[in-house]
Every structure is written in C-alpha cells, then in structure tokens.
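Write out the 3D structure for:
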Amino acid sequence: MISSMTGYGESQGEIDGVTYAVEIRTLNNRYLKTSIKLPDTAAFLEEALDKLLRENLSRGTINYVLRLKGTSANMGFEINETILQNYVEKLSRIATGSAEADYQIDIASLLAIPGILEPVSPNEETAAKIREMVLKLSKQALEQLKQMRLAEGTALAADLENHCKATKQVLEKIIARREVVLQEYKNKLQKRVNALLASAKLELDEDTLAREVAVFADRADISEEIARLDSHLQQFADSCQTNNKAGRRLDFICQEMLREANTIASKTSDTEISHWVVDIKCQIDRIKEQVQNIE
C-alpha cells in the first residue's frame, strides 16, 4: 500500500534527569532531503541519525529536531570565565566613564554572547547512553510517523482508484465509439462524392470507396494508444497496491498516460472522442497532483 509524504512522529525519554524529546516532520519533496537539528551535546549523533532516516524513508523533506529538557539539561555547558571577565571589565569602564546615566551589567544577558557558554563533550560512557536513548526514541518516532503516512496513503489510494475508474469508463466509451466513427466516415464520404458526381451521372466504385476508408482507418487508428493507456491504468493500480514507495514510478506512469491521451487526441477527428479525451486528460491531471503527495 502506498504512503503519503506528509507525517509527524514524536517520542521522549529521560537519562540522569535530562528529558530527550524527538520530533520528526515530513513534507512533500520530489527527492529525499534531511534537516537535523541537535543540541551541541548530541551533535556527534548527526551522521548516525541521517543514516537512520535514509534507511526508513525514501522521499520527502525530513525535519528532525532533538530537544533537551530538565534542570540537568544545561549541565553540558561551561562558562568561559576569562571571556566573561573581559566583557564585564570593559563594560564597567564604559559605565564608569559615562555621567549621563547609570548602567547595570546583566550577567544573564552576557551569557547569550557567542563564546561565553561552551558545550562540554560527554565522556565515552555518557555518549554511549545518549546514543542508545536517542536512537531508540528516533525509531519510535519514525514508526509513529510511518503509521501516519500509511493512513494518509490509504486515503490517497482510494482517491486515485476513483480517478482511474473514471478514466477507464471514458476509455470504454472511446472504444465503443471507434467502430462507429469508421462507418460514419464511410457514409459521409460516399454521400459527398455521390453529390459531386451526380451532375456527371457517374457512380463511385465500391473498391475505391473501400480503399479510401481503409486509408482513413489506418491514419486514424487509435487501437495501440487505447491498449497502452489501458495497460498503464492497470500498472498504476497494481503499483498502488503492491509498492509502498511507488511515488516516482507512479509519476512516470502518469506521464505515459498523458502521452497516450495526447496521441489519441491528435489522431482522431471525431468531436465526441475529442471531448472524451479532454475528460481523460483532466482525470490524469488530478492523478498527477495526488501522486506528488506519495512517497
């Protein structure tokens, strides 16, 4: 069964008083694109997480965020006292030399200056615990996300099936109309030629008429295009049922269906068939829009 490219998954767990919260969101994209945001203390996991995401998802924009919560979450940082002291001394001199206003130095604000707070790399034991926890939470979030994408994919599959059925119904009208067109062309041609030859008291030879109708039938034959379009519809339906990562394949099949519809339109001179081809192209266009949401 096909899956949607949009979804959301989350999970969280705690280690030593620190809560690790994982959020994964996915959006439509023709290709696979990952965006991973990690706190400095977990930056060493970026490569492993990117590999995990690519193993589980094949298409879409993936936004991965890991957040730390709890009073112990900030213990992974140290204050660079030397740099902080330099800022305080310089700001104190500026405040002392100004007679117009009183200035107060807010130490908490100074901590937001780059270089004041420096991340502390976890030791080997702590890093192993963080890695195990984050990967476990990531897998849980991914499973939740995939279930959501699968549920949306089921709804997409039902909608696509309806569009394919509608296309099939119009195609059957064209198949039924195809033979009638030949007979109508023969009658119209015979009537027109007889009218032109009436004044000369001549009659159109049946063999000549048959040859002309045969030439028209060959030039306007859409049997192959109809057969291929019908085959593409069947391939599309099969791919929706058997391949959960069929987005690119379905996109390609849509292009081929549109190609056959355009060829039928260029070959036919019948007004009814031309109108029906427009209906088919409208259905294919709706199918293409939905396929852009499929993984």
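Residues 7-75+122-151 form a domain with the Ribosomal Protein S5; domain 2 fold (CATH 3.30.230).
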